[in-house]
Amino acid sequence: MDPFKIEDCAQITSAAVHRLHRGHLWIYAGELEREPSGPAPAIVQVTDSAANLLGYAFYSRNSQIRLRFFSREPELPTPDHFRRRIRNSIARRKVLERQRSAGRLVFGEGDLLPSIIVDRYGDYLVLQTLSSGSEAIKNHLVEILRDLLWPAGILERNDVKARRLEGLEEIQGILWGSVPEEVEISENGTRFLVNLRRGQKTGFFLDQSQNRAAAAKYAFGRALDCFCNTGAFALQFAPHCESVLAVDISSECLQLAIRNRDLNGLDNVDFVAGNVFDILREMESGGQAFDTICLDPPAFAKNRRSRAAARSGYKEINLRALKLLRPEGILITSSCSYHLHESEFFDLLIEAARDSHRMIQVIQRRGQADDHPVLAGMPETQYLKCFFLRAF
Question: DSSP secondary-structure letter at 72?
Answer without folding.
Answer: -
